[in-house]
Amino acid sequence: MAELYRDLVRILEQNGCYLVRKGKGSHEIWYSPVSKQNISVPCSTKSQHTANDVLKRAGLGKAF
Predict the structure, then answer these.
(1) Which of 2, 6, 8 lies closest to 51, judged by CA?
(2) Phi and psi dihedrals of 22, rounded to 5?
(3) How many whole angstroms separate alpha carbon 31 and alpha carbon 47?
(4) Whole-angstrom Cα distance, residue 20 to residue 38?
(5) Which of 1, 2, 31, 32 has a CB 3.0–4.6 Å from the CB of 58, allowing a cystine?
């Protein structure tokens, strides 16, 4: 399931998002220029629902 996290990061990067810093626990804070806000991305993303929710908060469409 680590593939899901890698795919999520790839999609975020392709859309101009970038890593701001490591968050608490197993989360990272990313900035989305589309939504113009920071979003929390769990490094242990295991479900497609969670991945799609991250993309939605980043202002992007579903991909999973």
Answers:
(1) 8
(2) -75, 140
(3) 21
(4) 8
(5) 32
- Provide the pLDDT for residue 54: 95
Q: Which two tokens stand for residue 11?
A: 């999609």
pTM of the model: 0.88
Domain range for 20 is 2-57
Q: How far apart are CA 46 and CA 35, in angstroms?
A: 24
Q: What is the separation, in whole angstroms, between the first and last Cα of the chain?
A: 13
User: How many domains is the chain built from?
Assistant: 1
- The number of angstroms, rounded, from the C-alpha of 25 to the middle of its chain's C-alpha atoms is 15
Residue 34 lies in a domain: yes
